[in-house]
Amino acid sequence: MLKMNHLSKVYRTHLIETHALRDFSIHVREGEFVAVTGPSGSGKTTFLNIAGLLEEFTGGEFLLDGIDVRGMNDDARSRLRNEKIGFIFQGFNLIPDLNLFDNVDVPLRYRGFNAAERKRRIEESLARVGLSARVKHFPSELSGGQQQRVAIARALAGSPKILLADEPTGNLDTQMARGVMQLLEDLHAEGATIIMVTHDPELAARAQRNVHVIDGQVVDIQSEPRMRGLGVVQSAVAVG
Amino acid sequence: MFGYYLTLGLRSLRRHSVLTALMVFGIALGIAASMTSLTVFYLMGSDPIPWKSDRLHVVQLDNWDINEGFDPNPDILPDALTYLDATALMAASKADKQAAMYKVVLPVQPDNPEVKPFLSLARATGSDFFGLFDTPFKYGSGWDKSVDEQHGRVTVLTQPINEKLFGGADSTGKRVKFDGIEYTVVGVLDTWRPRVKYYDVSNGALNEPEEAFIPFTTAIELQMGSAGNNNCFKNSEPGWEGYLRSDCIWIQFWAQLDTPAKLADYKAFLDAYIGEQKKLGRFERPLRSKLPNVTQWLEEQKVVSSDVEIQVGLSFAFLLVCLVNTVGLLLAKFMRKSGEIGLRRALGASRGQLFLQHLVEAGVVGVTGGLVGLLLTWLGLLGVRALYSEFKAVAQLDWVMVATTLVLSIVAAMLAGLFPTWRACRVQPAAQLKTQ
Questions:
Q1: I want to staple A177 with a disulfide (CB 3.0 to 4.6 A). Which of A169, B232, B291, B369 is the partner?
Q2: CATH annotation of A31-53+74-223
Q3: pTM for this model (two decimals)
Q4: Are the Cβ atoms of B433 and A111 closer than 8 angstroms?
Q5: In the structure, what pLDDT confidence band is assigned to residue B123 with cuts at 50, 70 and 90?
Q6: How far is A73 from chain B (nearest CA, A)?
């Protein structure tokens, strides 16, 4: 599903060079739930941004669902991002002046679905996160946990191949965090591929596999084969 | 997607209503200032009789002083004719239609005792005048050539004076007394207000047409002096007859020449006429005549003065200032939306799609600014008409200017939106998503 081989990312200014990722290799298979952990500044978010095609990488190879993304133009990257990736952010990132329906609608608009198809997908995904009754509500009328559920519904609406979650419970209290985490686990059980960046060892422990990143390199892989919804043990392979 | 962008644009404008109001008002002010002056400029310079302006020609003959031309610019010939030349050309009758004319002042003595006597401006001209300039008639018609020949006491009235004297009713056949002499009304013009009084620009290009028309020959017989311009380069002999024989110019002469061949023939005729006059000791300067058509005539006479041109330039400079202001406001607005822009990028929007979305938003500002600007332009022109009555006919909005206003405002707003939109699309989504 997602394969990075010897990937590097260097930020350059006229004064300094910062190596955010170096010789970074990881292979996430379809249906896996991978937690990426590491201290602040270790390169977790850079990895997630590159994985989400939000940033370009400096060297190495990156295949997303078998597609080599190197050298893609902005249109192609945007299309690929829209079709293959669902984002879940720490800060929810809902658009405040759009109601839930219109928030979930955003990625579907860029996909070019017709109105009926968009409506069906929005209703299904909001139902999936238990917010069917709130389609006309605005984000400010919801709790943090509910907002994150909307963000998950938005990520799911386009039927992406992979969900990228950046500290998805970071802005939530314990109870709400538990609910969101349960939802992610349920999605994984249904076959979703999830990569979650987190500081929280408890959350990381609930993932199928942990990848620890320090100084832009994968230094530790904890594989915990667990039977999940797919009914098979997903083999987690991290190289490097 | 355009509908989606439009909805987003409207929503975004509502969300930042104060900023939006500032932008809309800024554009509206700039548009109103520029369109008010541009409308006056456009209407003053536009062709007042487009369907035949290329066939209507002013006759210009260089009869001026041998030692000093009529104008420091040697290309400018005298803008009127002498009585001698005007009557000679009328008698030759070489054009499809022709009319000599001059402005007179007529004391009007109404039969109705409730209407006090008043002075009225009139035009003494030939029977062809009405056909030359396609004047519309509400009642009756002009007079025929026999009236010219017989110096008939007839008149054609315009609506305002017909309203004053006859309450706007059909007055054909009725009598009206000008300076103690009775004239029979043969026609009443329908509304006729050329934006520029092109047939006599030297006596106030923006003035309204005269209120009444009488035969040229009658006015001459009754020794009515010109109420318009009169230029002489030497003293005339005493008395009315002396004046008529003089080289003073005071008569406008128009000829309708329907084909280029007729124009060429008429030019040859004029040159031959000057040649004959030279033999009689007149036209001492090198032989020169001109036959500018309506648009050439308005240009040569500088109907659109340089003042108006400067005013248009200044008002567009003001629009530019307003646009720079709008650029700043749009930039601030779009930069405040960096988070949303980053999010949309993450959710699959390409830079091109975001560029279009924000350009549409700028366009919405432009349309709104244009509509408000249109209202302000209308008020501005109302002000121009109130302050300067001579601009009454040229300070009017027509559909061309309405369309121009809207197009200009949209284009202006989009131009103003280009840089902020470009900047907005350069937003790095990753950085914005983290800082949300």
A1: A169
A2: 3.40.50.300
A3: 0.65
A4: no
A5: very high
A6: 10
